[in-house]
Amino acid sequence: MSEDRRVQRTRGLLQRALLELLETRSYDSLTMQDVADRANVGRTTVYLHYESKDDLYRQAHLAEVARIAGAPLTQEELLADDPPARMVAAYAYHWTTRDLLREVYFARDAGTIHRGLRDHQVETLAGHLKTVFPDVRFLVPADVLAVHLTIAEMGLMQWWIEKHPPYTPEQMAAHFHRLRRGMLRAGLALDHAAT
Fold first, then answer.
1. Pairing with 26, which of 41, 101, 136, 186 sits 20 to 30 Å away (CA)?
2. Which pLDDT belongs to residue 190?
3. CA gap 164, 70 in Å, rounded
4. Which CATH number does the domain 1-50 belong to among 3.30.43.10, 1.10.10.60, 1.10.150.120, 1.10.940.10?
5. pLDDT under 50: residue ranges of the chain
6. What is the Cα 61 distance to its own chain's centre?
7. Comma-separated ranges of CATH 1.10.357 domains in the chain
């Protein structure tokens, strides 16, 4: 097994261990030692791969969403009338794990976790927008547009999970998709883009 595969396997074990522990324990009560014990590795191994419990959670969450949603959305998917099925699947995942997410939203380190997720998403999205709209003039800089879209979606998701409004994952994905499509059209000169 190559070094990269061993690293991926260990990280996967640690991420699964954390998510499994969160099914029965509060986020604040968990320690890196608990994760190491659950994954049957030494505590030092955990710190070789993750700076902190917050870093581990962030990576575990991002990996799960990527597993469900797949590759970033294409230009056609971003501008389509309806949200792609994999976007709906990601919203369904957030809804089915809402108890765990609420636990993290109200953890002592919630601000650190949110900033880490936000910063990762902003950086990823800004680069992706430039890639997926290569021949389109940005009326709003890509990083500004990425911040706006990221904060809008994270805020909407947190509100939905915290307040339990009567919207299904399909409806929430459709609502955000329409809002994002409008924001993209406002931030980009799409008259030359393939739509």
1. 41
2. 87
3. 26
4. 1.10.10.60
5. 192-195
6. 6
7. 62-192
Cβ(126)–Cβ(108) below 8 Å: no
Tokens found for residue 148: 């706006």
Query: Which candidate, 164, 165, 61, places its Cα nearest to that of 121?
Result: 61
E-assigned strand segments in the chain = 137-138, 188-189
Question: What pLDDT, in 10s, does the model give residues 130-163?
Answer: 999 999 999 999 999 999 999 999 999 999 999 9
Q: Other CB atoms closer than 10 Å to residue 104's CB: what's the count?
A: 21
Region for 131 from its dihedrals, namely left if φ exceeds 0, alpha if ψ lies in -120 to 50, beta otherwise? alpha
Report the CATH fold assignment for 62-192.
Tetracycline Repressor; domain 2 (1.10.357)
- Residue 119: C-alpha distances to residues 78, 126, 149 (Å): 21, 11, 12
- Give pLDDT, residue 1: 52
Placement of tokens 């604040």 in the chain: 28
HSE, side-chain direction, 13 A CA sphere, residue 111: 1
| % residues pLDDT > 70 (the chain) | 96
Question: What does the pLDDT read at residue 2?
Answer: 61
Count of CB atoms situated within 10 Å of the CB of 85: 12
Tell me how far apart the alpha carbons of residues 98 and 73 are, in angstroms, rounded to a whole number.
24
